[in-house]
Structures are given as C-alpha cells and as structure tokens.
Specification:
alpha/beta, Rossmann fold, 3 domains, 5-stranded parallel β-sheet, 33% helix, globular, lipid metabolism, AMP-bd_C
C-alpha cells in the first residue's frame, strides 16, 4: 500500500454516486422560480416541476414500486414524460419509455421481457396498450394520463389516474423529499432497440452513464444556462438523447411539443424564443420545405440570433445545410446508437470551415466526427485483428466505442452483451473509415438496420413476416432512399414456382403483423442475387434500391 492509499477513505463527505436525478434538485434549489415547462397553457417553474416529480416518486412507492422495478411509459412529449425521468429513478426504479409507434405484439413482448410493474399510458395510445396488456403474461398497474393538449379519441384503461395520484401525495412529497441513495452503476432506464434480429434487445442504462452523457451533451453544444429547448425529438428515443436531464442541469425551459409539425416548430420558435432542438433529418427537411410565409413568420423575432439544431442519422447534405443556414438555423451533426445513450460522437467544426463554400463544408459536416468529451474512445478497427485501420479516409473497418457513455448491457441477454463488448470495445456493427485528422465517417451499415424517420427498423423482422406468406421462396429487405423519411424498407421477393401474388397482397399481409412504419414502401419481384453458397447478396440489392449511393458518398 502506497502513501496515497493510507488514511484517505471514501466517505459520505467526499463521495456521492453520480446520478442525473440530482440535476433537478439543484435546479429547484437555485432557480425555484425560473420557468421549467411550457405545454399549451401550462407554465411550471423548476420548484413546481420538482415537487411534482417527488409526488410521482411517493405515489409509485405507495403502489409498491421498489428498487429495480420497471415503470413503463407510453407517452408523448408531455410534462408527465419529463417528470417520469426524475420521479421514477429517484426511488431506484427503472424507466422504460416505449416507442409510441409500435404495434401491440411488439409491446407485449417488451412488457413481458421488462417484467413491467407499472404502465403510464397516454389516452392516445390506450387502445394499443390495452391490447398489448391483454396478451401479456405480466399484469402491470396501469395509470392513465389525460393530456389536455390531446384532442383525439381514446378511453382511460387504468386503475389509477395520474393527477389524482399526485394530488394525494402533495403533503408527503413536501415533507419527505426523496434523494437517490443507490449506486451509480444501478440501472436508471431501459430502452429497446431492433438490432438485427426479430426480437428487440433491452438496452440498460446506468445512473452514472446517464449523467455523464447528459453532461457531454452540454459540453458538445456549449449548452447555455436557461436554454430554451424544443422537444421535437421523441423522449422515448434513448431518453431523448438524455436531454430531459441535461435541460434540468442548465435550469432551462422544456417546450413540449406533442406533435411535430412545421406550424408547431415555427410557432414555438416565434412565441417562446426557442434556442435549441434535436431531430432526425426528416424534421429538418420538413422545416426547409415548409411554406415561405410560415418560415418567415416563425423566424421573424430572432433579430440575428441563430437557432441551434442537432441532427443524427443520415449526414446532412449541402442543400440541407445551406437551406437551414438561410433560415437562421445552424446544424450540428452527431452520431450514436441506443447502446451509447444516443449521440456519442460529434462533427466538431474546425477553424476555417465556416469560410468554405457550403458544398465543401458539407463534405466535412457529413462525417460522424470525433468522440464526445466524456467518451473514452472512438475508433475504426479491423474486426479480425482489432487493430486500428490506417487513417487514410479509405480503409474500411468497424466503428467501435468505449468509455463512460455506454450501456450496462442487454437485459437478460448475456450472450449478446458479451458479443457487443468483445475485445474491450462496444462493436457498433457500422462500417467506416478514419481520416488523417481523426474524424470518422460511416461507409455502410453492417447490421442491415433501416433508419426511417429517425426510427430503427430491423430488416430481419420484416423478412420473417414475409416468409410466412406461402407464395414466397426467398426475400431480402434493404433500405431505399426516401425524400421525406430518409429511408424506408424495400423488399425484394423471389416467388415459389407457379406462385402468384401481387405487391398489394404482400403489403396487406405485412400490415397484419407489423407496425405501419415498418411495412415496406416498395416491393420488387425477381430472382435474388446469391453467392455460391446460396447466401443472398444484400449489397447488390442495395445498389438496385439506391441505398449504397445514399450512404456511401
């Protein structure tokens, strides 16, 4: 034992577990009267928001929720979703935010796999959730949330109502505030990702990783104190890239947006002085292609100030960058996966880039960039030797990541976790190159995941459904470029001898088994290209669909 290991203990005075739950505690202490939430007519301060989070925590405890229990949320971008990011983990429970676009069968699988104890459900999604629960082995406690901004149909299906539960805990929450007392390696959230198999994997986040990812997002964007953040990115997607926690850390304003429309985005920028927002390329394209009068009105009060927007997924084109800049919006390109809390690399601009012509600048901005501040490593390795590829911008390898911004692993799937972390790196399955300046660029997706409107779609899941049709001999699904969604599934079909079926019939078949956004947007018939061993050559099919040119530019 050396002298620095003697009489220097870790105690309550010099060590506290890292957790993003503490961010809201500080926001309420330091800026209690500062605006925290805007949602329709609702205006709440940080003190009020913190109080509601504590009421939620006490309500869940009263219902028997304990450390390690799963609290599932089927919610839109509403104040209740923000509150769940603090109230649930405060008591050591795990927040499982579900994709609101999923079908009942997928939801049933997730409820069972996560062993859901409680389900928070917005009235808009009550019907599909009711069907999912009816077929689930678990029978969770269901809490209804009736958002005043939702004007559509939908019945309450729960035993409890959210506001009533919170109201019953006002006094206790005020007298007995809850502080997270667990370990920073404890699970804070569970997010499902399609991956490359039909069954989604449950990605488990830790309190430590969530806090460090949130802090990294603040650093990468120089996120200012009292930022006004517009929720265009779904909070179910990697916990909103950890921004529910990051905005609390900066005591900013959460501008909730239940449905993303050009009118909603430009109206929020105009009315609430929005400074930042995130989204898939489809969101930015939607804004660029909005009516000129709407754009002019929405950006009329900026007075020279630029709005900052973060984009992930497909690299922004020169046209998109130029169009967004003309609007008064600056794009920051990031890259990541569910397994790394959303973004973990950023195309950090270098001095001199802003003086380049927009087409030349787009070449640099198309790269996925360099590691986040609190991510220990990002590299491109030869998958066989696990050695870095030459930094020549040409030699292809697998993009790998390691460090603080990484999942604990896949829930109840030790084999997949071990494979993902083989060799001390997280294997993304994305193929890329590294340039002399260290910046990484994706060249292809080895996982065959289709990214449509910012959502991951498993090609194998679609193929499994199509194989159930009696007329199909062979099928392969790849990405097809789409002007609105970025990519949509394209199915190449080889029929059995003498079999006949129309594309319309196959689309109808898919709709019976898949969520709408997973249904192929195009179907092509013919013999599929195969190797000498009979393996379908998806690379050739990507050429036919245009996917290779869309990615490898």
């Amino acid at each position: 034992m050396n002298i620095y290991e003697q009489d220097l203990p870790k105690t309550a005075a010099n060590y506290t577990a890292l957790t993003p739950v503490d961010f809201i505690v500080r926001a309420a202490e330091v800026f209690p009267n500062r605006l925290a939430v805007i949602h329709g007519p609702i205006r709440r301060t940080w003190a009020q928001t913190y109080q509601r989070c504590m009421q939620l925590a006490q309500a869940l405890r009263a219902l028997g929720v304990q450390k390690g229990d799963t609290v599932t949320a089927m919610l839109a971008n509403t104040p209740e979703m923000i509150e769940s990011h603090f109230g649930v983990p405060a008591i050591g429970a795990v927040l499982n935010a579900l994709n609101t676009r999923l079908d009942a069968a997928s939801l049933t699988y997730m409820l069972n796999h996560a062993q859901a104890k409680v389900v928070l459900v917005d009235r808009e999604f009550a019907k599909v959730m009711q069907e999912a629960i009816a077929h689930a082995q678990v029978k969770p406690i269901v809490i209804d949330i009736d958002d005043t901004q939702y004007q559509g149909s939908g019945d309450r299906i729960g035993t409890y109502e959210y506001e009533a539960l919170l109201a019953a805990q006002v006094e206790r929450a005020a007298q007995e505030p809850i502080h997270f007392t667990g370990d920073e390696w404890d699970a804070i959230a569970l997010n499902y990702t399609s991956g490359t198999t039909g069954e989604p994997k449950g990605v488990v986040y830790s309190h430590r990783g969530a806090q460090l990812a949130a802090i990294s997002n603040i650093l990468e964007w120089d996120l200012p104190s009292h930022v006004v953040y517009l929720w265009t990115l779904p909070m179910f997607h990697c916990n909103g890239w950890t921004y529910p926690w990051a905005i609390a850390a900066r005591a900013g304003v959460n501008v909730c947006l239940r449905k993303v429309t050009p009118e909603g985005v430009f109206g929020a920028i105009r009315d609430y002085n929005v400074s930042h927002f995130c989204g898939a390329p489809i969101v930015h394209s939607m804004l660029v292609n909005a009516p000129e009068a709407l754009k002019k009105d929405g950006m009329s009060k900026l007075n020279g100030r630029r709005v900052q927007a973060m984009v992930a997924g497909a690299a922004p084109s020169a046209t998109l960058i130029e169009s967004m800049e003309a609007l008064g919006i600056t794009l920051t390109h990031v890259y990541g996966l569910t397994e790394v809390y959303g973004p973990c690399t950023v195309c950090s601009p270098q001095e001199g880039w802003d003086t380049l012509p927009v087409a030349e600048r787009a070449v640099f901005n198309a790269r996925q960039g360099v590691r986040y501040h609190l991510q220990a490593g990002a590299d491109v390795l030869n998958p066989e030797t696990m050695q870095p590829v030459p930094r020549d911008g040409e030699t292809i390898g697998e993009i790998v990541l390691r460090g603080n911004i990484g999942m604990k692993g896949y829930l109840r799937n030790a084999k997949a976790t071990e494979a993902a972390f083989a060799g001390g790196w997280f294997h993304t399955g994305d193929l890329g190159v590294r340039f002399p300046d260290g910046y990484i660029k994706i060249k292809d997706r080895s996982k065959d995941v289709i990214i449509s409107g910012g959502e991951n779609i498993s090609s194998i899941e679609i193929e499994d459904v199509l194989y159930k049709h009696p007329a199909i001999m062979a099928v392969a699904v790849v990405a097809k470029p789409h002007p609105k969604w970025g990519e949509t599934p394209c199915a190449f079909i080889e029929l059995k001898p003498s079999a006949q079926v129309s594309a319309e019939d196959l689309i109808k078949h898919c709709k019976q088994h898949l969520a709408g956004f997973k249904v192929p947007g195009a179907i092509e018939f013919g013999e599929l290209p195969k190797t000498s061993t009979g393996k379908i050559q998806k690379f050739e099919l990507r050429k036919r669909s245009g996917a290779v040119n869309a990615i490898d530019v």
